[in-house]
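Journal club prep — side note

Before the paper discussion, L.F. wants everyone to see what a predicted structure for a comparable chain looks like in token form. Sequence:
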Amino acid sequence: MTQADRVLSTPPLNTPIDTNRRRFLTVAAGASVASVGILAAAAAMPAAVTDSSACAIDPAFALIAVHRAAEIAHREVIDAQDEAEDKYGIHSDEAWEAADRCGAMGDEVNAICWKLATTPPTALAGVAAVLRFANEVEDAGLEWPDTDTIGSEGWHY
């Protein structure tokens, strides 16, 4: 029987290794696994919780916190307007001043909304947080910035 003088199925041992391709594939695989983990963690995190390290990474978290605070302040101004109208009458100077404060606060909330809607998140966790927040806003019956669609027909669903 003749004996083979070489093996055709294995490459020669002196073939250079493509380290750039291997490094790229390793980094891509690692980034993919990390991004899935971050997205899963962000989706599991309660909406009221904001991680300070995430805020430093992604402006979306800070804008969501600012929007939540502005909405609370806006509700307080609306309550003050209602009280002024009840106490002094709808056409009183106090009621008009309260209405002006309410309108100004509404404009501020809308400006924050637009900043949030137009600031691209820098991490997948930020994307998940913005989408979750937009859903919360519309699930509460409010309109996410001027989309003409409320609820599950919105762009973020």
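L.F.'s comment for the group: The chain has a mean pLDDT of 74. Keep this in mind when we get to the figures.
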